[in-house]
Amino acid sequence: MTSAQQSQVGALVREWRTRRRLSQLDLALRTGVSSRHVSFVETGRTRPSRQMLLRLAEELEIPLRERNHLLLGGGFAPVYPERSLDAPELAPVRDAVRQVLTGHSPYPAVAVDRHFNAVETNRAARWLLTEGVAADLLEPPVNTLRCSLHPRGFAPRVANLGEWRAHLLGRLRRQVHVTGDEQLGALYTELRELPCTQEEPEVELPGPGDVVVPLRLRHEDRELSFFTTLAVIGTPLDVTAAEIMIESFFPADAATARFLQEFHLPLE
């Protein structure tokens, strides 16, 4: 490894340590080395081994994609494969995602990649969440956050748009902080500039009876209320698998549940 490479990998370690708000001593204690050694790694005075970089990445909770970048910066080959979701090796992942989405019907659910582009949706999501959305926003890759907040998306149907927008942008901002992903940062900037006629709360506070932030969506002559959950692959060893998230919409009140259970989804 050249001195330039050592400086590069040291800068990456320092960047992730700072992002995680850890001191050199904190990181040293977690990895079982001296704070002097961590300092030498960060300043490029010592060359970390492949195993040490992997230990540092694990303790810093660096995403698999960025762990590969860290290894490359240290002069080592990446260890985590990045396959297309259509690859034969990821067939079990595809099948599991589809099983979750199908099993969630009649409620909406969508699987997204690291940039919140839809990779799979169930029938309920395609029926409910694309209503009134401009055709160009539905051209692949369909970004679910853009569709949610864009004035030509389903934002005009969201009764509590200010509250829902603040929630989504806050979640995206935290994701940018956790991953350091520049494309996510650009998406946050884009969405932040979209117009909103409702007041956005600076801090999420519950309304009367609220236990979660609801999505109150107008549909025909009624208002449907949802809360959402996010699920990820629990033990990923592939970059693509690690970045898939499944967002499931659950009815937040009995009327919404009853409507969706009794309504027959249109055939595709």
UniProtKB/TrEMBL annotation:
Give the source's domain of life in one word. Answer: Bacteria
Family annotation (Pfam families): HTH_3 (PF01381), MLTR_LBD (PF17765)
Looking at the record, the residues that make up the HTH cro/C1-type domain are 13-67
**Which CDD domains does this UniProt record tie to the protein?**
HTH_XRE
- Cite the PANTHER family for this sequence: BLL4672 PROTEIN-RELATED, BLL5781 PROTEIN
Protein's recorded name: Helix-turn-helix transcriptional regulator
Instruction: Please name the source species.
Output: Lipingzhangella rawalii
